[in-house]
Description:
By secondary structure, chain C is mainly α.
Amino acid sequence: xxxxxxxxxxxxxxxxxxxxxxxxxxxxxxxxxxxxxxxxxxxxxxxxxxxxxxxxxxxxxxxxxxxxxxxxxxxxxxxxxxxxxxxxxxxxxxxxxxxxx
Amino acid sequence: xxxxxxxxxxxxxxxxxxxxxxxxxxxxxxxxxxxxxxxxxxxxxxxxxxxxxxxxxxxxxxxxxxxxxxxxxxxxxxxxxxxxxxxxxxxxxxxxxxxxxxxxxxxxxxxxxxxxxxxxxxxxxxxxxxxxxxxxxxxxxxxxxxxxxxxxxxxxxxxxxxxxxxxxxxxxxxxxxxxxxxxxxxxxxxxxxxxxxxxxxxxxxxxxxxxxxxxxxxxxxxxxxxxxxxxxxxxxxxxxxxxxxxxxxxxxxxxxxxxxxxxxxxxxxxxxxxxxxxxxxxxxxxxxxxxxxxxxxxxxxxxxxxxxxxxxxxxxxxxxxxxxxxxxxxxxxxxxxxxxxxxxxxxxxxxxxxxxxxxxxxxxxxxxxxxxxxxxxxxxxxxxxxxxxxxxxxxxxxxxxxxxxxxxxxxxxxxxxxxxxxxxxxxxxxxxxxxxxxxxxxxxxxxxxxxxxxxxxxxxxxxxxxxxxxxxxxxxxxxxxxxxxxxxxx
Amino acid sequence: xxxxxxxxxxxxxxxxxxxxxxxxxxxxxxxxxxxxxxxxxxxxxxxxxxxxxxxxxxxxxxxxxxxxxxxxxxxxxxxxxxxxxxxxxxxxxxxxxxxxxxxxxxxxxxxxxxxxxxxxxxxxxxxxxxxxxxxxxxxxxxxxxxxxxxxxxxxxxxxxxxxxxxxxxxxxxxxxxxxxxxxxxxxxxxxxxxxxxxxxxxxxxxxxxxxxxxxxxxxxxxxxxxxxxxxxxxxxxxxxxxxxxxxxxxxxxxxxxxxxxxxxxxxxxxxxxxxxxxxxxxxxxxxxxxxxxxxxxxxxxxxxxxxxxxxxxxxxxxxxxxxxx
Amino acid sequence: xxxxxxxxxxxxxxxxxxxxxxxxxxxxxxxxxxxxxxxxxxxxxxxxxxxxxxxxxxxxxxxxxxxxxxxxxxxxxxxxxxxxxxxxxxxxxxxxxxxxxxxxxxxxxxxxxxxxxxxxxxxxxxxxxxxxxxxxxxxxxxxxxxxxxxxxxxxxxxxxxxxxxxxxxxxxxxxxxxxxxxxxxxxxxxxxxxxxxxxxxxxxxxxxxxxxxxxxxxxxxxxxxxxxxxxxxxxxxxxxxxxxxxxxxxxxxxxxxxxxxxxxxxxxxxxxxxxxxxxxxxxxxxxxxxxxxxxxxxxxxxxxxxxxxxxxxxxxxxxxxxxxxxxxxxxxxxxxxxxxxxxxxxxxxxxxxxxxxxxxxxxxxxxxxxxxxxxxxxxxxxxxxxxxxxxxxxxxxxxxxxxxxxxxxxxxxxxxxxxxxxxxxxxxxxxxxxxxxxxxxxxxxxxxxxxxxxxxxxxxxxxxxxxxxxxxxxxxxxxxxxxxxxxxxxxxxxxxx
Lengths: 101, 490, 325, 497
């Protein structure tokens, strides 16, 4: 096992933690945190696996991760704004399942 | 003129034009309606141009930046992309016309940039041949769709939007994870290169699982459909139309494309699973639709059911390849037209009576005949009654099912039609009766009624256009990858 | 050599465990504020991990955007949520809030979710372990074409030349997020507009410095780590600081001039794309001789727009509308 | 371009186009609407006459448009098609006149006549279909076009009737589609061919073909109201009288019966079907339907409901005639397509007149109505005698050929069915005649409308009188060259020899 694989496994761990938290938490801020941690996990897998051979670092995954980080911050900003709006309208930063019925 | 048609880089125009339109609408919101309609008209013409090009030259390739794959990104168009682009432009045009009458000033200033971003994302997605680029288009698509849902602003819409956003982001991340695994297995992001090299391995199986799960979540296949009804039912009606008709189809298209071109050699063996989910989606979605008391919620659940049909092709493709895929594409485009028309009709009756309670539709058949006609015609196609696009699609699908003795699927195909008839005619039946408590009515702009009716008529007309559309679909033989796989197997 | 390797393993192992622990705590500690702080710490540790993975460009982006800006967004959202609660004036609000922050679905559901997640973790781990130990990336392809790209930093070459189309769409995503937020029509909270003297001083001191850093990152991006996104986010951070200090765009600039600043990056990108299309028949195909100049123009305008968008994302409400209401 | 290639399509267009225009007309434009309606049906009649002459002289009329790879939309004018088309064209004209009179002054007439025309287009399409997919297309169109007519009045009862109607017919339609596609996957062809196109198929497909046959009968049986698939029909009585007339005599039930004829003759072929052993059970089912529905009719007090059960019974004569599988019985069955139509539409017109003029809906209210409305009741009486099968009416011809055919095919049990049915018909119709002619009229009718010196509006009176004469005439001149019987003989010859 190389260091690359070690980090990739850490990435998988982060991803799965994020999925779990996303599913069980009710508070939207937590869900958003969970998505961000999931994202970090994916980025880590994406970049770490490029380092399996020690010749030179592959710039393509790095570029993809930078793109991914920017996309993630955009999505996070939007999600947070939506959360604030929901909280302003319903008084709670949660999804209310009951009211749809 | 002919030269012009064939030399213009239509695919590039299809991506950049709506993007420029979005920026212009954002900068100068004074004349958004006119700007938007001009953009849509341009997009529509570009699809026609691309179609002419494809008919002349076969598939379209464009190496962006002059860099060939695997270093650069390729744009790619074949019959499958063309049909998706075409349906997008057509539905988009009608929804846009509808929207100019539907929204007030402030709303249309918000609507147009977002909708043009959505259109950019759709076109870019249909034209991309690069896995990571597809991820970016998926994010662009998801964010613009969610922002559009949230425009309605009410409690239900915001909740729906949030649920949709979370599902969409989760889906994108799953997809990206799959892309990462593929990249590190084969060192490329290009679809064509990947498809040449792909073979079964644990990593590829994981990639298949992740990518499929992400896209199924975005396509809202049962049981991952939980986010769809609240989002689609609570958005503004033209937006519901766009979401149900196009956005869901985009991720379906991608799934179809990836399974066909990338994963088919290995995914054929698990295609049955998608079929089972499809069956359950048809049954569950239809039963839920039957229980609804509001038109928009009913129509949204109908989308859940109709999505199920699209997945029946996967188990059938093993023995009836092209017929099954043709069937599913025909169903997809018919559903796009019909469902958009239906949501627009639902928007009209909401505007008219101020509510969409089914039991209180109050003689709409007489008072809003064009809208009810639109709803009915769209319904005919959704049920799969002749003559309509839905009928052709179901016919082909049934043929594919019976050809290989899949009685279970055949029964579900027919049963789904009957169930659809039951829930759709529930609405139509109440359009003939009087409500117990009459409500105040508001006039519906003529444009909104006709936009819905024309689009619904389009769904009917599709019933006669199969000899035109099926050859278009065959450009570049997108379904051939499958046939060769079939030969190898047999 | 052997000892060094062991040390490396130790460091990387610690970083890995630290990341998992921080993520776990950020996701499951009872208090939301603490969770956010832990998340920021997580981001900083991620930066370290990127450095260890020989990706300094990513590390820069992570520290500026992943940890910095995302953290700031999370904190300010948390503060606004708290204000909403305070405005509602509930008697037992503190207790309620804490409960709501901790609230999860029923325990049965925990197990229901945990099982497939665990299965997925095992499957993914197995899949990764099965990968061949030799990377099959595109580093050689990038290296071979680097000369024609106009820059010597390979990451910048990928972002702004080889895969510039991705970057174009990515800037579109950023802009879209902002337009989406603006269309939510969130009213600015009153508290935001008050001036804080300490922050004001800080902002006055830091802004020029951040400007300088940003300019450096932009310039250096062509041949070393850095580039438009890093520069843009640093410049954006300056904007965030100014906003925190209570500074606002004058209304005369908050309309069209601001909007033009927001879209100038994307517009330039499109304009270049179209020009290259007309000139060379291919989207975003830069002639190698002018590539470095074109990339510099693209990066400069992109930096400006990214900074403006990031600051505007932080502000949340539309500056030209907020004054009208 | 050959003119004959487009004639079948034109025939459909001349009811479809006026229909579509009428949808767009304002409610008050009575004159334009009437003109459109009548000119459409007159042109239709002329075209039919032209084609009858043409086919008689061996000309070929066929429209063929591509629909799917390997499958065309085919409209063809053969003898069997023309028999049904002629019936529809004639009865459409009469029903249109009747409906104009019947609905005078009532709301939503544009909608009504629009769907009415659509309904006729679909019926003509069903009649002219040259293959199964075309048939299916128009058959479902017919379902859709009749639904708004059934719920036309917009009451809760009407909505319910419409719902039940759709539930039955769409499930039937689903079965048909299933069967059709199944057949297509086996044979790769759906073209109607005299004596069928299945006998070339190998023996291993026989079980599948039996299943397909059952599916077809179940699918068409819904509209043909074979028991136990008849539940929708009595409920659909809620619709206005012209709709009932159309449903019962021309369009819906007839389309079902016609479908059975097509499947047995032109898909399976009568010999092959007999060989498969599927015709005998069909005959038993038809016989059972004839007797059971007649029994049910005995107990109905509502006039239209009694007529509805009578329809269920009578339509099954057609099925019976086919299923006996002999040339003479076939003539009886096919000719009954026309005869039943003429007789039953007369009865429904008359029932409508009673309701519209005097407000009479129940048989118990009909005492002495013959004195008040002699012309209407005279037509009614002719219809009734036809139903019973008394000579020299059209009904007699049918029963004669059915009986002879059964004997010829060695199935003498059918005679008993016919006799029993005639007795039952007499038992539920003759008491009505007794009331009508021999009882004293009450002082007040339930709800009398004034039509001046006439017993009712001429538009209501003329159609039943004409159809009654036709029903009588079809029996009297059965031996003439262009009589329905002569055509039926032509069709049977083609199938059997």
